[in-house]
Amino acid sequence: MRKICALVVLMLGCVAMPATAMYENGQNLYTDLKRFDTRNANEPDLERDVAIAMAFGYIKGVVDSFDGQFFCSPQSVTVGQLSQTVLNYLSQHPEYWHKNASVSVRFALSDQWPCAKK
Q1: Which of 14, 67, 79, 105 has the largest count of CB atoms under 10 Å?
Q2: pTM of the model
Q3: Domain total of the chain
Q4: What single string gives the DSSP state of each residue in the chain?
Q5: What value does the mean pLDDT take over residues 33-54?
Q6: What is the CATH number of the domain that holds 54?
Q7: Phi, psi torsion values for 98, nearest 5 degrees
Q8: Is 13 a domain residue?
Protein backbone atom coordinates (compact mmCIF):
# COMPACT_ATOMS: atom_id res chain seq x y z
CA MET A 1 0.00 0.00 0.00
CA ARG A 2 2.86 2.39 0.79
CA LYS A 3 4.41 1.70 -2.59
CA ILE A 4 1.13 2.57 -4.33
CA CYS A 5 0.79 5.81 -2.34
CA ALA A 6 4.40 6.74 -3.11
CA LEU A 7 3.84 6.03 -6.80
CA VAL A 8 0.70 8.17 -6.88
CA VAL A 9 2.50 11.06 -5.15
CA LEU A 10 5.40 10.75 -7.57
CA MET A 11 3.08 10.74 -10.59
CA LEU A 12 1.16 13.75 -9.33
CA GLY A 13 4.42 15.59 -8.77
CA CYS A 14 5.42 14.96 -12.37
CA VAL A 15 2.27 16.47 -13.81
CA ALA A 16 1.83 19.31 -11.34
CA MET A 17 2.19 22.74 -12.89
CA PRO A 18 3.42 25.80 -11.04
CA ALA A 19 0.75 28.26 -9.96
CA THR A 20 1.34 31.45 -11.92
CA ALA A 21 -0.76 34.42 -12.80
CA MET A 22 -2.20 34.52 -16.29
CA TYR A 23 -0.98 38.05 -16.90
CA GLU A 24 2.45 39.23 -15.84
CA ASN A 25 1.87 42.86 -16.69
CA GLY A 26 -0.52 45.38 -18.17
CA GLN A 27 0.86 44.92 -21.66
CA ASN A 28 -0.06 41.23 -21.74
CA LEU A 29 -3.57 42.07 -20.61
CA TYR A 30 -3.83 44.96 -23.09
CA THR A 31 -2.79 42.69 -25.95
CA ASP A 32 -5.62 40.23 -25.25
CA LEU A 33 -8.19 42.97 -24.67
CA LYS A 34 -7.18 44.57 -27.96
CA ARG A 35 -8.00 41.27 -29.67
CA PHE A 36 -11.59 41.72 -28.49
CA ASP A 37 -11.67 45.27 -29.76
CA THR A 38 -10.51 44.23 -33.23
CA ARG A 39 -12.32 40.90 -33.58
CA ASN A 40 -14.52 39.98 -36.48
CA ALA A 41 -17.54 38.12 -35.13
CA ASN A 42 -18.00 36.41 -38.50
CA GLU A 43 -14.59 34.74 -38.26
CA PRO A 44 -14.49 32.28 -35.36
CA ASP A 45 -11.08 31.97 -33.77
CA LEU A 46 -10.92 29.70 -30.73
CA GLU A 47 -7.51 30.89 -29.55
CA ARG A 48 -8.59 34.53 -29.71
CA ASP A 49 -11.90 33.81 -28.00
CA VAL A 50 -10.19 31.91 -25.17
CA ALA A 51 -7.69 34.76 -24.70
CA ILE A 52 -10.53 37.27 -24.52
CA ALA A 53 -12.45 35.14 -22.01
CA MET A 54 -9.32 34.81 -19.88
CA ALA A 55 -8.82 38.59 -19.94
CA PHE A 56 -12.45 39.20 -18.96
CA GLY A 57 -12.16 36.63 -16.17
CA TYR A 58 -8.93 38.18 -14.91
CA ILE A 59 -10.52 41.62 -14.73
CA LYS A 60 -13.59 40.20 -12.97
CA GLY A 61 -11.29 38.55 -10.44
CA VAL A 62 -9.58 41.86 -9.70
CA VAL A 63 -13.00 43.51 -9.32
CA ASP A 64 -14.20 40.77 -6.96
CA SER A 65 -11.03 41.19 -4.88
CA PHE A 66 -10.68 44.98 -4.71
CA ASP A 67 -14.04 46.65 -5.43
CA GLY A 68 -14.85 48.97 -2.54
CA GLN A 69 -11.19 49.30 -1.55
CA PHE A 70 -9.37 50.87 -4.51
CA PHE A 71 -12.38 51.70 -6.69
CA CYS A 72 -16.16 51.63 -6.39
CA SER A 73 -17.76 50.37 -9.57
CA PRO A 74 -21.54 50.57 -9.96
CA GLN A 75 -23.44 47.37 -9.18
CA SER A 76 -24.98 47.41 -12.65
CA VAL A 77 -21.63 47.47 -14.48
CA THR A 78 -21.01 44.59 -16.89
CA VAL A 79 -17.79 42.67 -17.46
CA GLY A 80 -17.76 44.13 -20.96
CA GLN A 81 -17.87 47.67 -19.57
CA LEU A 82 -15.14 46.87 -17.06
CA SER A 83 -12.97 45.40 -19.78
CA GLN A 84 -13.55 48.34 -22.14
CA THR A 85 -12.59 50.72 -19.32
CA VAL A 86 -9.34 48.83 -18.76
CA LEU A 87 -8.61 48.69 -22.51
CA ASN A 88 -9.22 52.43 -22.92
CA TYR A 89 -7.08 53.29 -19.90
CA LEU A 90 -4.17 51.11 -20.96
CA SER A 91 -4.28 52.44 -24.53
CA GLN A 92 -4.03 55.99 -23.12
CA HIS A 93 -1.40 55.08 -20.51
CA PRO A 94 1.24 52.79 -22.00
CA GLU A 95 3.57 53.94 -19.24
CA TYR A 96 1.68 51.50 -16.97
CA TRP A 97 2.13 48.50 -19.25
CA HIS A 98 5.14 47.32 -17.25
CA LYS A 99 3.15 47.30 -14.00
CA ASN A 100 1.63 44.13 -12.61
CA ALA A 101 -1.61 43.44 -14.47
CA SER A 102 -3.77 43.64 -11.34
CA VAL A 103 -2.26 47.05 -10.52
CA SER A 104 -3.01 48.22 -14.07
CA VAL A 105 -6.64 47.11 -13.68
CA ARG A 106 -6.92 48.86 -10.30
CA PHE A 107 -5.49 52.09 -11.77
CA ALA A 108 -7.96 51.97 -14.66
CA LEU A 109 -11.00 51.28 -12.52
CA SER A 110 -10.08 53.75 -9.78
CA ASP A 111 -9.68 56.42 -12.45
CA GLN A 112 -13.14 55.62 -13.83
CA TRP A 113 -14.93 54.89 -10.55
CA PRO A 114 -13.14 56.39 -7.57
CA CYS A 115 -14.61 55.72 -4.15
CA ALA A 116 -16.24 58.63 -2.36
CA LYS A 117 -14.09 60.24 0.31
CA LYS A 118 -15.16 59.25 3.81
Answers
A1: 105
A2: 0.76
A3: 1
A4: -HHHHHHHHHHHHHH------S-SSHHHHHHHHHHHHT--TTS--HHHHHHHHHHHHHHHHHHHHHBTTTB---TT--HHHHHHHHHHHHHH-GGGTTS-HHHHHHHHHHHHSPPPP-
A5: 80
A6: 1.10.890.40
A7: -80, -15
A8: no
